[in-house]
Each structure stands twice: as structure tokens, then as C-alpha cells.
Specification:
Blueprint lengths: L20 H5 L3 H7 L1 E4 L5 H24 L22 H6 L14 H10 L29 H8 L2 H11 L4 E7 L9 E4 L29 E7 L11 E3 L20 H6 L17 E2 L6 E6 L4 E3 L12 E6 L16 H9 L5 H7 L5 H6 L1
Antiparallel strand pairs: 1-7, 2-9, 3-8, 4-7, 4-9, 5-6, 5-8
The chain binds 2-oxoglutaric acid and fe (ii) ion.
Length: about 375
């Protein structure tokens, strides 16, 4: 593999001066490990912020166009092992109501099974493909693979030296992409109630999705998935769609309700799971913190950190967002493959055609190197 791993295939799409270096350099590892999150307030330069917003807006339009233009009834879902979409889910009126934001696509495109299929085989290869006008289908909806449709997003998530420096601060030298989704919250989006996430398939977690609370520790978990959210236009409490976290809660190592329904609002958390839980370092009761982030901010948090996303209020605009989740590789991964969030079909085809840059190979590498899969 090329050691110059920050080389970029698409120089014209790079914004060289992407991050404010004083914000990048202010990262404090001790605080991050102790509290479980780090806010990169206003880290994007003005040029980067504008470019990032423009990319998310363009990608949302692409996602909307595929949704509206694809003739869903002509696709043989059953032959691929899926129930066909309900007729009322593919009317132009229904589909139009699904446009404009993330997590709004019709149910038949959002099941875990269909997403796995899309990543493994491409949607819907061979045969009928997603319908695109003026751009090429990458076999995956843009919401679930924005980098495949936008070279600026590909650059910032796989190659840009300043972004790679940010991820190196979080992980050290070796990290791989777990998943990268758009999270554009349109007005009226309900957000997400309290939950956390697991590392890989949850097979290493010391507690179940509710947990006993007995595993509290001051030791930062070395095997990590860290989520970094970028909000080019901000995400404030005033407008809604804001992120809330609980500093120190990750030290219970409980992937809270990761695999179950997530109905808890703040009141339910305080009356329930939070009762009696303390910060392992300060021994003070854990407390919910709602973040109000100005334009051009990012926030990173570890996978066991319970978090919540507020309702996006009327009279505002869409909260633009990109989720970049990376993780440490799992040396015990069996089979040696990617997580479900990675479009393996795209990665394998692109690598086989020699079109995957050395930089992209580094983050798209599975738990074990790509060339190993290509030889099989
Ligand atoms: O910010 C959002 O919209 C969702 C955040 C979230 O739950 C996540 O990134 O895991
Ligand atoms: Fe989440």
C-alpha cells in the first residue's frame, strides 16, 4: 500500500484550508477519555463550511431524485428475497413526502436486510438499477454512502490530511471506516430518543443493552467505535435537532438500547436508567447535557455514550449533518470482512478496477487488508 496515504484522487474537490488548526490542536485526550466526547466548536473554515453544506444539499437532491425516478414496481423484490413494497408506499405523493431529509425513506428501503443486500450486492444489480439522471448509480442510496456520490465528501472522509489528523487524535494511527451516513434533519424530524451503540456486532460488550451498572470503570476502552458528527450549519437547542450526551456515562460500557426500541426522553432517563449512576472520576451524579453547536462544528463521541437528538422545530431550516463513524480494526473478526455499514460491493468493484486511491484503501480496509479479499 502507498505510504502517502493522504494522497487524493480528486484534487479539484479538495478544500486545502479545511479546519481551523487552533481548534484541532486544542484536543485534550485526557478530557475526551474521561468525559467520552469532544466538541470541535467552529472547526470548519468558512470555505469548508460552505462546501460541506453544498455537498450535503446536492446529495440530498440526488437521494430524492433516485427515490422519485426509480420505477420501484418494476423491480423484482421477491426474486431477491424481499417482500415487494406496498402499493401505497410507492405512489408519487407518498415518495414526495419522503424527500428532503434523512431517515425518511419508505420502510422497504430502510430494513436492516435490504441495507445489507444493498451493501453486499449493490441495489439492484444485476438487472434493473437505481434510476439516476445525470449521474451514475453506485448501487447504494446516497444517504447511506454519500462519499460514493461526492468527491469532496470522499476526500474529507478518506484522505484529507487535516481530517486524517483529527481521526488520528481520536484513534492513533490505525482506524477504519465503520459507516458514514447523511443525517439531514428536516423541519419536524422527531430526532432520536436516548440510545448508545455497540462495537461491531455487540459481541464484546461487557453489559447488555440495559446493563446492571456494575461494570463502572475509569479505564477507557481501547477497542472503540467513535462517531463524529459534522454540522456545517450548526445544531442548536434553539432550532432543535441538537445532540445531547451524558458525560462519563460511557464508563459503564453499556450500549444502551442499541438493539431495542428507544422510547426514552430526558424525563424517562432521569427517572430510570440514570438513577444512582455516577461519573467514575468525579463520583458526582451523571447529568444530561444538551449541546448547542454553532455553524461549522463537529462533535465526536465514543460508542458507549448514550445520546439523544432533539425535535427539529418549525420555522427553522434543515439541520444538515454528516455522520462519520470509524473504529479500531478487530483482529478477531471472523469472517474477515467489513461491518454492515460499508458498501463492500462498491469497494471490491472499485478496488478491482484500480480506482480506489491509496488513501481510500486505508479507511475502506476491512479488519484485514483488501488485497486478501480480492485474491479469494
Ligand atoms: O444527529 C443525529 O441526527 C443522529 C445522531 C446519532 O444518533 C448517531 O450519530 O448515532
Ligand atoms: Fe446514535
Amino acid at each position: 500500500m502507498d505510504t502517502l496515504s493522504t494522497h487524493n484522487c480528486f484534487p479539484e474537490s479538495r478544500v486545502d484550508d479545511l479546519l481551523r488548526l487552533e481548534v484541532l490542536q486544542a484536543f485534550d485526550r485526557t478530557t475526551f477519555e474521561r468525559d467520552g466526547y469532544w466538541v470541535w466548536e467552529g472547526i470548519l473554515t468558512d470555505a469548508a463550511r460552505k462546501r460541506w453544506t453544498a455537498s450535503l444539499q446536492k446529495l440530498q437532491q440526488m437521494n430524492d431524485a433516485i427515490l422519485m425516478d426509480t420505477e420501484w414496481s418494476a423491480i423484482d423484490f421477491e426474486a431477491r428475497g424481499f417482500p415487494p413494497p406496498l402499493p401505497e408506499q410507492i405512489t408519487p405523493e407518498f415518495l414526495a413526502a419522503c424527500c428532503g431529509g434523512s431517515e425518511q425513506m419508505p420502510g422497504f428501503l430502510r430494513t436492516a436486510e435490504l441495507r445489507r443486500y444493498m451493501h453486499t450486492y449493490g441495489l439492484f444489480r444485476p438487472g434493473a438499477a437505481l434510476v439516476t439522471h445525470g449521474f451514475e448509480s453506485q448501487g447504494v442510496m446516497p444517504e447511506y454512502f454519500p462519499a460514493g456520490y461526492d468527491n469532496f465528501i470522499m476526500d474529507v472522509t478518506s484522505a484529507h490530511p487535516q481530517m486524517m489528523a483529527l481521526f488520528t487524535k481520536l484513534f492513533g494511527d490505525r482506524f477504519i471506516l465503520d459507516h458514514c451516513f447523511m443525517l439531514n434533519r428536516a423541519i419536524g424530524s422527531k430526532g432520536r430518543r436516548w440510545h448508545a451503540h455497540q462495537y461491531r456486532d455487540g459481541q464484546y460488550e461487557v453489559e447488555d443493552p440495559i446493563g446492571t451498572g456494575n461494570a463502572l470503570t475509569t479505564e477507557f476502552l481501547k477497542r472503540q467505535c467513535i462517531r463524529t458528527l459534522c454540522y456545517p450549519e450548526g445544531a442548536t437547542i434553539e432550532d432543535g435537532g441538537e445532540l445531547a450526551i451524558i458525560p462519563g456515562a460511557h464508563l459503564y460500557r453499556i450500549p444502551y438500547k442499541w438493539s431495542t426500541e428507544r422510547p426514552d426522553d430526558d424525563a424517562a432517563m432521569k427517572a430510570g436508567w440514570l438513577k444512582g449512576k455516577i461519573h467514575a472520576f468525579t463520583r458526582k451524579p451523571l447529568e444530561i447535557v444538551h449541546l448547542s453547536l454553532p455553524p461549522g462544528s463537529m462533535v465526536s463521541f465514543v460508542h458507549h455514550m448514550p445520546h439523544y437528538v432533539g425535535y427539529r422545530k418549525p420555522g427553522t431550516t434543515t439541520r444538515w449533518g454528516l455522520l462519520m463513524a470509524y473504529r479500531t480494526p478487530d483482529p478477531d473478526a471472523e469472517p474477515e470482512k467489513w461491518t454492515n455499514g460499508i458498501p463492500t460491493d462498491w469497494v471490491e468493484q472499485t478496488a478491482a478496477q484500480g480506482k480506489l486511491s491509496a488513501a481510500a484503501q486505508r479507511v475502506f480496509e476491512a479488519d484485514n487488508p483488501i488485497h486478501k479479499h480480492l485474491q479469494n
